[in-house]
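Thread: "does anyone have the structure for this chain?"

Original post by V.I.:
We have the sequence but no experimental structure in hand. Need at least a predicted one for the grant figures.
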Amino acid sequence: MASVQQNGQRFGITEPISLGGPTELDVIKTRELEKHLQDVGLYESKEEAVRREEVLGILDQIVKTWIKTISRTKGLNDELLHLANAKIFTFGSYRLGVHGPGADIDTLCVGPRHATREGDFFGELQRMLSEMPEVTELHPVPDAHVPLMGFKLNGVSIDLLYAQLPLWVIPEDLDISQDSILQNADEQTVRSLNGCRVTDQILRLVPNIQNFRTTLRCMRFWAKRRGVYSNVSGFLGGINWALLVARICQLYPNALPNMLASRFFRVYNQWRWPNPVLLCSMDEGSFGLQVWDPRRNPKDRLHIMPIITPAYPCMNSSYNVSASTLRIMTGEFQRGKEICEAMEANKADWDTLFEPFAFFEAYKNYLQIDISAANVNDLRKWKGWVESRLRQLTLKIERHTYDMLQCHPHPHDFQDASRPLHCSYFMGLQRKQGVPAAEGEQFDIRRTVEEFKHTVNAYTLWIPGMEISVSHIKRRSLPNYVFPGGVRPSHTSKGTWDSNRRSEHRNSSTSSALAAATTTTEMSSESKAGSNSPVDGKKRKWGDNETLTDQLRKSKHIAVSVPVENCEGGSPNPSVGSICSSPMKDYCTNGKSEPISKDPPENVVAFSKEPAESLPIEKIATPQAPSQETEELEESFDFGNQVVEQISHKVAILTATATIPPFEATSNGSAFPNEAVEELEVLPMRQPDAAHRPSVQQRKPIIKLSFTSLGKTNGK
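Reply from O.Q.:
Generated one for you, tokens below.
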């Protein structure tokens, strides 16, 4: 491959970090990576590829027939009727060339000015599709942020968007990459065109498309295995990962996928968020469309992981990311970096990097959100709405508990085969790591859950049968259908990278604690003016050691007191009021299908401070919040040229290699302060309810955190 330096072309807004080409080891490792991706089934067969091309050809003919029909109906003259045309474009993973078997195809239909979105696209075209036997599972979504129709055509999943251009005739050679295509276009058309324009621009801005595609396949697969591939859950989606990988390709233009994957983790493990990731300079355009600019738009200053699209109008594609999900992803970047370094030393392989994250082993406590509907169509609508609101539940819980209670949302839903019209979502719960816990401390999230349910139940298309319940569940009570094959594993995973690292950290922590305890005991023994008998002193010292060891053992666990009550019995806290805000019949479960009894005993759930019972990334990533730059943005609207200078200055952008100076750590050891900036409505803050109980001499004293599940609504 000709180097970037030789052909004189530069990609990106800065100079590359390295122009070095691949070594012999890189070539071997890249072949191993490509074989691994093929073995796990990430590439479609030639037959399926041909079938997709055929389906796209059929779809193109359908929209051309549709536009002729409505043009004739609207009385266009013969010349316009003859020239009437609509055109199909693709975008997303299919256009990027990284789609896998069974993946849907993101498509865009571009039509003329007389073909309206509401009356013609969601009218006549929808009717035509519904009458075609080869079209199945048709579901229009006209009220979405980007309106679309989803369906299957000859078994291939299609998502079809529509762009209505202010043109009488759509030429067959239409170039939608030109900014002039946006002139006089409505807002929904601009958003619909954005997917195609961004995808095409990405392919123009990477130095080697094949290396980009292989690396992107690798990172998409890794993100899905590690549970951080989901835009709606607050992680990153397909376009986000594509932009991140494209930037790495720009910084290492002559590298092969093996090195690009390694540098991906190194760069983003050190990236100083909220510095934006940019593939090119931002063009403000001439059509007055709003672009991402924290200097002018206050809302843009709340984005903590900005990844900017390269096509006008430039937007932040990752506005859903929160402080909690950024913390989780940063930890995963650190893990990936460590494994890639181990691979260079032949101490790990690609299987190690792609080990799935054991979500249901990582925590002792979870929130389970169960939803149901009367039929399949209602459940699909209800799921879409609830999924879009789950991120708000995470943000509110962490905000109302002052980030002391952390949530980790699972990016997917789970369904019990015996209950086809139900599905469940799960969130891992843990106390903030590295913060001393005060005995008797409690967190009451009843009001938070109540607010969440009120928000969900405000769904404008809500109909009877759409139900939701939220309950606290222990790890040992997780339903079997969340495990592969519906079979609960008899023991936790062993021998994996994560379990080994947890074990190493646990042993290190225990050794340090014992060493500290021994030192303290010796100092205490020396300072005592007790008996002069060496035997007495020895016995006393042994007894002190035993007490300290017990204390160490006692301090390893934090417990959660979970009083669970039924709504029929009323709330035990008058200030909270009823905790059942659902307009439908609402049952709270204790991890099973039956309602919780009216007067259940108090359940005590243990959170372990040890990494073995928490996220494997927590030993290497303290809870992350926005950096000093974000605090400056919050304090003043005068962002000035700060971001522009950070973007254009080579040192500020290349915060991604070993040559970049390390972060200035804050008091908590993190590169970020404790406070987090979240894209959430402003609500009055309140202190979590605290209940202090008399201390009782126990073998394992506990600190209690109070969660409250929701009960059954009386008379609903």
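V.I.: this helps a lot. The longest strand covers residues 422-431.
O.Q.: and Residues 46-199 form a domain with the Beta Polymerase; domain 2 fold (CATH 3.30.460.10).
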